[in-house]
Amino acid sequence: MVSIVISLLCCWAFLPLLRVNGEFRGNDSCVFPFAYWGQTYFTCTNKNEQNGSFWCATTGSYDKNSQWNYCTEVDRNSHGPCVFPFIYNGTIYSSCTTAGSSTGKLWCSLTSNYDENPKWTYCTPSEPRPCVFPFIFRGRSYYKCTRTGAHDNVLWCATTDNYDRDTKWKICSSQEYEGTSHGQPCFFPFIYKGRTFFTCTNENEHEENGRFWCATSGSYDKEKKWSYCADTRLDINPTGPCVFPFIYGGKSYSTCTTDGPSLGMFWCSLTSNYDEDPKWTYCKFSEQRPCVFPFIYNGEPYSTCTRKGSADNLLWCATTANYDRDTKWKTCSMQEYEGSSKGKPCIFPFIYRKRSFYTCTNEYSEDRRFWCATTRNYDKDMQWSYCADTRIDANSIGTCVFPFIYKGQNYSSCTSAGIYNSKRWCSLTSNYDVDPRWAYCTY
């Protein structure tokens, strides 16, 4: 009897302490990340293991399922749970990061201060799968990444539609990562297979596991630069390319629109007929910059928005002087948008700082985008919108200067003198003969 007890104690000693009720799964592979005592592990650990052997959970949570196996290959210099938050280069991180990674791979510190104690590991999951929204956790539905249930307050999501059933999850990245651009941020809109994307996509250009990616320049077709999308960009909203033209309210649209209850923000349909299949997304730009006129495209100058080169016949412009060099662009708006008036149309002329404007202006605009007042007097009403890009071209923009000199004669109001089409115009300088900048007087 004594020998039997000794034999049992001998065998029991090899099992990790505090896992005496756990289930040894000798044929199952490690699952990373896994949760143990409320901490997140991307490595094997010998925590609470009497003989120092390294082990791992075989589901996403040892705390929940208590299933484990021994590890066969272990980097003994880099093991343990991620510590959140941690300090790196003086900055606090509460999730895995790509900071300092030349390859754009996500990593975490295994100490609270990497600067003082530089131990780390890559945040590499066993199954590189995307977040699934919505997912069930503790009987409740979640539609985006959450911190609920995370003892280390990390942002996470399930990678199946039911965490309670499958115990599969991942830490949500708050940065783009990996790809040919090594984690450079997304650029929206981007062109992929001739279509316009304002969202991440999981069309299987790169792999079959369904992870979402984005281009990191204005055209994937041209430059082939991409990253995996930050999980915090994703939710239950549909993804995919804008479809132009699309039907909304029985009307055809060939560009993004502010029509409908959008509060003056641009949106597009992700289907050819929104009325029948209402999937949509906002047309949000990575860089809030105005059209630049003239701009170079395929070696030729363009002084207005154009449809040239657009496979979906979209009206567009470059946001730098040379698209061929920079690949930066935006869809051209045909309506006013946003602003304090939520996209109401321009009113010309309008008073701004006691001056009359007959054109859009970018005076005192931080991002240099052009705007207009939507009442006769901005100084009084403070109502404005960003101008439709189709109002902007290579002509001069600014306020009329009265009086002005033209061909030696003084003018104190708009005139049609010298204009073949009889449209009224004004000088944007006090002496047109010396400094010939002008604009049409738009009423």
From TrEMBL:
CDD domains: FN2 (cd00062)
Record-level Gene Ontology MF annotations: heparin binding
Matching InterPro entries: FN_type2_dom, FN_type2_sf, Kringle-like, SP_Capacitation_Regulator
Subcellular localization, as worded in the UniProt entry: Secreted
Keywords (A to Z) from UniProt: Disulfide bond, Repeat, Secreted, Signal
Pfam families in the cross-refs: fn2
Residue ranges occupied by any Fibronectin type-II domain in the UniProt entry: 25-73, 77-125, 126-174, 181-231, 237-285, 286-334, 341-389, 395-443
Highest rank taxon of the organism: Eukaryota
GO BP terms, alphabetized: sperm capacitation
Disulfide pattern: C30-C56, C44-C71, C82-C108, C96-C123, C131-C157, C145-C172, C242-C268, C256-C283, C291-C317, C305-C332, C346-C372, C360-C387, C400-C426, C414-C441
Signal sequence annotation: 1-22
GO cellular component terms listed in the entry, alphabetical order: cell surface; extracellular region
Family: Belongs to the seminal plasma protein family.
Protein name, entry field: Fibronectin type-II domain-containing protein
Organism (species): Anolis carolinensis
Lineage summary: Eukaryota, Metazoa, Chordata, Craniata, Vertebrata
Gene encoding the protein: LOC100566180
